[in-house]
Structure formats: structure tokens, C-alpha cells
Design brief:
The protein is an alpha/beta fold and 323 residues long. The chain contains twelve helices and nine strands. Helix content is 46%, strand content 18%. The longest helix is centred in the last third of the chain and has 35 residues.
């Protein structure tokens, strides 16, 4: 082992006072002993920083870093710069993990002598937990990179990564990305000849809060502009690889879908922004009706389609509320 610490767990913290207790309780309850927890308080205006300090007083594994708000990328990078573990993994403060996660991930990574270990995860929504398989079709790093734009999740929280890779390949979290920074970093890692392993077990509970993550409530023109920044940045990174077409298609679909659900554009604006991307709406992850509606929106019929979809959604919601 190259370090006295086996795993560094990095937790970016911002406005998390409502749910961070469950996250931290799951981390301090690990059966693994050789790890550290880095809580990066990214200038949170609520009591999140105080809660982190309280946990640190009770557990010597926890280190709290209070910093000026700079976004999730800067928080993750701050944690990475401070980490001393042989491996690193990220945990988001609104999620939680099984008590044997670190122990089993480390044992398998050490046994396989791998650079990156992928595992399955649970998606928790409305008190229901669904297992999400993350098995690549092949463990070759090029194949895993390609499948990040198909069925593999781009997150950092179901991947144990050898910390030395970041220095070896000069990889850091991009400060100009406020979301999908984890996808970008995983692309950077997998562009290199790294050894990947897969463990067919799930430990991480990804909490899907439909109200918190609602695009209708949070989508804006600024969100659209950030989507374009992400598209350009990842495509520039992958431009010379065989993955570029998969990446462009998947990210283009995401842009159209997010704009479609956002409800902020006129029909002419939607056509102006999404017309060139219309052929990418027929995505493997989308049902045919949804794709057809997005296609029609791209050619100029967005407003009437959005109104129709909204009416149908409200009717379904009212019916469900009576059940």
C-alpha cells in the first residue's frame, strides 16, 4: 500500500443542512478502518458548515475545509488537493452509502490492482429503491469511455479511483463547469490506458428528489448556456477519439430534452436553438412518443406541444392524488 490511508472520501457541501446528517452517519459507520473523510464546505450560507464541524469534533477521520463559494468543481478539486489516500471516491451530501462500501471496494480494487473500480448503485425515489446495473460490456478503457454516453453513469460516486492518476495525467476538475464536472473528469481518466475493474454490487444510494431536481422549476437561459459550454468542452476533449460521435449525440439529446422540459422558450426560440440537434432526439433512453414530440418542437411547434404535455401531466397528477 502506497499510503497510510487507503481511501479518501470527498464530500462537497453546499446548502445541505436538511439531509447531510444521514450522509455523514453512513460514512462514519463504515466497517473499513483505513480512510479519511474530507468535508468541503463551499461557503454554504446555512448551517451545513457547523454540522460538519460537529461531526469532526466527534470523529478523528473527518477533516473539514471551509472555503469561499466557488461551485461544486472547485469543492471537489479542493478535496482532491487535500486528499492523502491511495484511492479517492466522492459522496454527495444528499445521498448515503451502505456500511460495507469502502471495505469491499478497497478489497476488490487491491485484489485486482486496478486504477478504477466501477460498481452498481441504488436510485432512491419516493421511498422506493431501484438497483441500477453499471456493468461495462468490456473492461477496456476505450469501451468504458464510449459507454459513459450510453448506459454508464458519469458520476464519481460509484467509482473508486487511484489518486495518483490525477497527477500522472494532469487531470483536475474544470472550474468553468457547474454540473457534469464528474463526467468530464471520468472522460479525462478513461482517455488514458488505465486498468478498469467492475464489481457487481451496489452500495451507493443516489437520492432522486423530483421537486429539487425539477427542470420546470429550475431551468433558465443560463442553464441552456451552461449546457452548451459542457457540450463544447467535452467534444473538444474527445475530438480526436472514436467516441466523439457518441458524446455529441448523447449531449445533444440532453440539451434538447432539458430545454423541452424547461418551458421557457417561445417556439421560434426553441427552433433557433435546437433545430440543428433534432436528429439526436431519437435516443436509446427515450420512448418514441417523447422523441417525436421533441422533434416537432425543434422544427417550430414547441409552445403548443409543451402546453399539451403540461395539461396531460396535470391531469395525471390529479388522478394520482385521488388514489
Amino acid at each position: 500500500m502506497n499510503s497510510s490511508i487507503g481511501i479518501s472520501v470527498i464530500v462537497p457541501v453546499f446548502k445541505a443542512e436538511r439531509y447531510i446528517h444521514k450522509c455523514l452517519d453512513s460514512l462514519v459507520s463504515q466497517t473499513f478502518e483505513n480512510y479519511e473523510i474530507l468535508l468541503i464546505d463551499d461557503g454554504s450560507p446555512d448551517k451545513s458548515g457547523e454540522i460538519c464541524d460537529e461531526y469532526a469534533k466527534k470523529n478523528k477521520r473527518i477533516k473539514v475545509i471551509h472555503k469561499k463559494n466557488g461551485g461544486v468543481s472547485s469543492a471537489r478539486q479542493c478535496g482532491l488537493d487535500s486528499a492523502v489516500g491511495e484511492y479517492v471516491i466522492h459522496v454527495d451530501p444528499d445521498d448515503w452509502v451502505e456500511s460495507n462500501m469502502l471495505c469491499e471496494l478497497y478489497d476488490n480494487a487491491y485484489k485486482d490492482d486496478c486504477d478504477i473500480l466501477l460498481c452498481d448503485y441504488y436510485q432512491d425515489c419516493n421511498r422506493q429503491s431501484m438497483l441500477v446495473k453499471q456493468q461495462p460490456s468490456n473492461l477496456n478503457h476505450d469501451i468504458v469511455l464510449k459507454e459513459l454516453f450510453h448506459h454508464l453513469h458519469g458520476s464519481c460516486w460509484n467509482k473508486l479511483v487511484k489518486r495518483s492518476l490525477f497527477q500522472q495525467y494532469s487531470i483536475s476538475f474544470p472550474l468553468d463547469l457547474s454540473f457534469s464536472e464528474d463526467l468530464y473528469v471520468n472522460c479525462c481518466l478513461l482517455m488514458n490506458n488505465v486498468k478498469v475493474s467492475y464489481l457487481a454490487r451496489a452500495y451507493y444510494h443516489y437520492t432522486l428528489d423530483l421537486n429539487k431536481n425539477s427542470l420546470v422549476r429550475h431551468y433558465s437561459r443560463d442553464t441552456y448556456n451552461k449546457d452548451i459550454v459542457l457540450l463544447n468542452k467535452i467534444c473538444a476533449l474527445l475530438n480526436t477519439t472514436s467516441v466523439i460521435e457518441d458524446a455529441y449525440a448523447r449531449l445533444s439529446f440532453s440539451i434538447v430534452e432539458r430545454a423541452f422540459c424547461g418551458g421557457i422558450f417561445s417556439s421560434s426560440e426553441f427552433k433557433d436553438k435546437c433545430f440543428e440537434l433534432k436528429k439526436y432526439v431519437f435516443d436509446e433512453r427515450s420512448n418514441l412518443i417523447h422523441s417525436i414530440l421533441m422533434y416537432l418542437s425543434c422544427v417550430g411547434f414547441y409552445n403548443p406541444i409543451f402546453k399539451l404535455v403540461s395539461i396531460i401531466s396535470n391531469i395525471k397528477h390529479q388522478i394520482n392524488s385521488f388514489k
